[in-house]
Design a protein that fits this description.
heterodimer; A: mainly alpha; 2 domains; B: mainly alpha; globular
Chain lengths: 155, 507
C-alpha cells in the first residue's frame, strides 16, 4: 500500500467516523430542541464540528489525489510489523483474561515474559526465556509492592 | 511577608517534596530515553495525581516536565540522539563537545543553563501571570471563546507540516471533548449507549492511548534490540568560574527567547531552542566555533527550552489556555481535581497558584541538585534496549488507565485510540493539537453557546467589545500570516524547480 492510498483511506474513515458521531449525537439528543435557546442547543456546536471535519477531510482527499510526488506514491514499509501485530494481540489477550478471570499479577507476569521472549528471540529461546522470566518476576514484584502494598490499589 | 511565609509553609511539606523528587527522577529517565520523552512521562504520572492533594500532584507533573526538558539533553549529548524534540538543537554542539573527550563538561553546561533558564521561566511566571489574569477579568464569554480559538489556531497552524491535517486534528480533539452528558442541558451526546462515556472520554485513557500506546508501537518499528553505546567514564565534571562566565550571555538570550516563545501558545520549547541557537550563533564573537563543540551552542537552546516551560504556564494559569501538549495534560490534573485554570483561579485557589509559582522554582532547584548527583546514573539507562522498555511501559500504561477509574472499558478504549493514533502519527496528523483541543473543548463550547444564547443567536456578539475585536484581528492576522507563508514557500519551491529544469535543459 502507498502513502497516498493510506491517506485516502484515513480521510474516508474520518468522514465515516464524523457521520457516525453526528448521527448518534442527533439521535440521542433529539429532545435537545426543547432545551435550545436562541437556536443554540446541545447539538449546535458538535454539528458545526462535523461539518468542518467533513470539509477538511474532503480537502485532504483532493490534495492527496493531486499529490503525485515520489514521497506520496512510495510504498509504505513498516519494520517489525509482525512484532507490532503480536504485541497488539497479546495485549488484547491480557486485558480479556484480566477482565474475565482476574489474577492481574499473574497475567502481567505472563504478558511481560511472553513479550520479552518474542522480542529477544534473536538471542535464542532459552536465553530470551530466562531473561524474560527474571525481568518479569522483578517487575511484577515491584508492581505488587508499589500498587498492592504501598498504594493499596487492588486490581 | 506574612503571606510569603504562609505560601512557603504550604509548599515545604513532606508530600510535596517527595512528589517533586519522584517527578524529577521520572522526568529525567523518560527525557533521557529517546522515543519516550516528557509528554509520555507526564501522561503516565497523571493517574497517580488522583490519590494526591492538588498541589502535590501538580508539582509532581511540573517537576517531570522540567526534568524531562533537561533529560532530553543527556542522550542528545552522549549519543547524538535527542531524547525530546526540545533537545534537538543541543545535539549540534553538545554531541560535538562529548566527542571531543568532554562529555561531562557538555552535560554540566546543559544542566547549569537549563536550571538558570528554569528559574528565569519561573520568575516570568510569577511577574507576568498576575497582571495578565487581572487584565483577563475584563473578558466575557465572547472573549473567552475567541481566546480559545486563538489557542487552537496557534497550535493548528504552527504544529505539524500539513496545516489541513493539523486543523483536522484540532476538530477531532474538539469532537472528543464534546462526548458525554451536556453540562448545560443534561442531554447525552455521542455516547453510543455506553454508560462509561456519559462522563466523557476518560482523560487518562485518551492521553495514554494517544501518546504512550501509539508511541510504543512506533518504538517497535524503530528496532527492539538497539543498545546505545557511549563513553560513561568522564561524566562527572564541574565547570570553572571562567567557563560559567562564558555562558552568561547565551543563557540570558536563551532564557529571554524561551520565556517569550513559551507564552505564545503553539510554539513551545521545540521551536524556541532553534530560535535561541540561531540568535546566539549569529551574535557570537566566534560564530565559526558553533557546530564544533561550542559551550554557547549548548547553553542557548538548553536555557531556552526550560525557560519556555515557565513561559507556557503563564497563559495556562492566567487565561486557561494550554500552550503545549504537556501543559494540556497538567490542565487535565487540574480538571480531575475540579479546578478550572483561568483568572478566577487566582482568588478561588490562591494557595494552589502561589504554591505552583514557588514550587516551579523549587522543581528547577531539585532538577539541578539531582542532575548534579545522578546524571551518570541516568546516562546508564540509555543502554536499556527497546525490548525491555516496550514490554514494561506497556504494562505501566494499562495499570495507569485502570487505576484512574477501575473500568475495563477504558482499557479497550485506550487500545483502540492507541492503534488509531499509530496510523494518524505516521500520516503526520498533529497529536498535540488533538489534546489541546480536547482540554479546551468545554471552555470553547460553553462560552460559544453562552455568547450566542445571550445575543439570541446573533454572531455580532463576537465583534461588540474592543477586546473581542482585537482578538478577532489577531485570529485574522494569524491566518493571513500562515496563508502568506505557505504561498511564499510554494512560490520558492516552484522557482527552484524551474531553475533546476533550466539547468537540466542546459546540460
Amino acid at each position: 500500500m502507498t502513502w497516498r492510498s493510506l491517506n485516502s483511506i484515513m480521510s474516508v474513515i474520518l468522514i465515516i467516523g464524523g457521520l457516525c458521531y453526528a448521527l448518534n449525537l442527533n439521535h440521542s439528543a433529539s429532545q435537545a430542541i426543547y432545551f435550545s435557546s436562541g437556536g443554540v442547543g446541545p447539538t449546535y456546536f458538535p454539528n458545526i464540528l462535523t461539518a468542518l471535519l467533513i470539509v477538511l477531510c474532503v480537502v485532504t482527499l483532493y490534495n492527496n489525489f493531486r499529490d503525485k510526488s515520489p514521497e506520496n506514491t512510495e510504498t509504505i514499509t513498516t519494520h517489525n510489523l509482525w512484532y507490532i501485530v503480536a504485541t497488539f494481540l497479546l495485549v488484547i489477550a491480557f486485558v480479556a483474561s484480566w477482565q474475565l478471570l482476574g489474577y492481574f499479577y499473574l497475567n502481567a507476569f505472563i504478558l511481560i515474559t511472553v513479550l520479552l521472549t518474542i522480542y529477544r528471540m534473536d538471542f535464542g529461546l532459552p536465553n530470551s526465556l530466562i531473561v524474560a522470566a527474571v525481568t518479569s518476576a522483578f517487575t511484577t514484584g515491584f508492581l505488587y509492592v508499589l500498587f498492592g502494598k504501598i498504594l493499596t490499589i487492588s486490581f | 511577608m506574612e503571606t510569603l511565609g504562609h505560601d512557603l509553609q504550604n509548599l515545604f511539606t513532606i508530600t510535596n517534596l517527595l512528589c517533586i523528587l519522584l517527578g524529577t527522577l521520572v522526568g529525567m529517565v523518560f527525557g533521557a530515553l529517546p522515543g519516550l520523552g516528557t509528554v509520555i512521562a507526564v501522561a503516565l504520572l497523571l493517574p497517580v495525581t488522583f490519590t494526591l492533594p492538588p498541589l502535590a500532584g501538580i508539582l509532581m507533573l511540573l517537576a517531570t516536565y522540567q526534568a524531562g526538558e533537561y533529560g532530553g539533553s543527556i542522550s542528545a549529548i552522549l549519543l547524538g540522539v535527542p531524547g525530546t524534540p526540545q533537545a534537538a538543537a543541543t545535539v549540534i554542539d553538545g554531541h560535538a563537545m562529548a566527542m571531543n573527550d568532554s562529555p561531562g563538561k557538555a552535560l554540566s553546561y546543559s544542566l547549569l543553563s537549563s536550571s538558570i533558564g528554569g528559574i528565569f521561566g519561573g520568575m516570568v511566571l510569577i511577574f507576568v501571570s498576575v497582571p495578565l489574569a487581572e487584565f483577563a477579568l475584563n473578558f466575557g464569554s465572547p472573549e473567552y471563546f475567541l481566546l480559545g480559538v486563538i489557542g487552537l489556531m496557534a497550535v493548528g497552524l504552527l504544529s505539524g507540516r500539513d496545516k489541513v491535517k493539523s486543523l483536522i486534528s484540532v476538530v477531532l480533539g474538539l469532537m472528543a471533548g464534546t462526548v458525554g452528558v451536556d453540562t448545560l442541558t443534561g442531554v447525552n451526546r455521542a455516547t453510543f449507549n455506553q454508560p462509561e462515556l456519559m462522563d466523557g472520554i476518560n482523560l487518562v485513557a485518551f492521553l495514554v492511548g494517544m501518546f504512550a500506546i501509539s508511541e510504543l508501537f512506533l518504538m517497535i518499528s524503530k528496532g527492539l534490540n538497539i543498545s546505545y553505546v557511549a563513553d560513561y567514564s568522564k561524566l562527572k565534571t564541574g565547570l570553572t568560574f571562567r567557563e560559567i562566565k562564558n555562558i552568561i550571555r547565551p543563557t540570558t538570550i536563551g532564557s529571554l527567547i524561551g520565556a517569550g516563545t513559551g507564552i505564545l501558545p503553539g510554539i513551545g520549547g521545540g521551536a524556541s531552542c532553534w530560535f535561541a541557537y540561531a540568535a546566539v550563533s549569529k551574535s557570537s564573537k566566534n560564530p565559526e566555533s558553533f557546530g564544533k563543540g561550542c559551550a554557547e551552542g549548548i547553553a542557548a537552546p538548553e536555557s531556552s527550552n526550560n525557560a519556555s516551560a515557565g513561559g507556557a504556564l503563564v497563559p495556562f494559569l492566567a487565561l486557561g489556555i494550554p500552550g503545549s501538549a504537556a501543559i494540556a495534560i497538567i490542565m487535565g490534573a487540574f480538571i480531575m481535581h475540579g479546578i478550572q485554570p483561568g483568572p478566577n483561579v487566582f482568588t478561588a485557589e490562591r494557595d494552589l497558584v502561589y504554591g505552583i509559582f514557588y514550587g516551579f522554582i523549587l522543581t528547577t532547584v531539585a532538577m539541578y541538585l539531582i542532575g548534579r548527583m545522578l546524571t551518570p546514573v541516568f546516562a546508564r539507562v540509555l543502554v536499556v534496549p527497546n525490548s525491555f522498555l516496550v514490554s514494561i511501559v506497556m504494562v505501566l500504561c494499562l495499570i495507569g488507565i485502570y487505576a484512574s477509574k477501575s473500568a475495563f472499558f477504558d482499557l479497550w478504549l485506550a487500545l483502540g485510540i492507541g492503534v488509531t493514533f499509530y496510523f494518524l502519527k505516521r500520516l503526520q496528523y498533529s497529536v498535540s493539537s488533538v489534546i489541546i483541543a480536547y482540554v479546551l473543548a468545554p471552555i470553547i463550547e460553553e462560552n460559544f453557546r453562552r455568547s450566542l444564547t445571550l445575543s439570541n443567536g446573533n454572531y455580532g456578539v463576537f465583534f461588540e467589545s474592543i477586546y473581542s475585536i482585537a482578538l478577532v484581528l489577531m485570529i485574522v492576522g494569524a491566518i493571513s500570516a500562515s496563508v502568506y507563508g505557505d504561498y511564499k514557500k510554494r512560490n520558492n519551491r516552484a522557482n527552484s524547480t524551474d531553475t533546476d529544469e533550466r539547468i537540466d535543459a542546459k546540460n
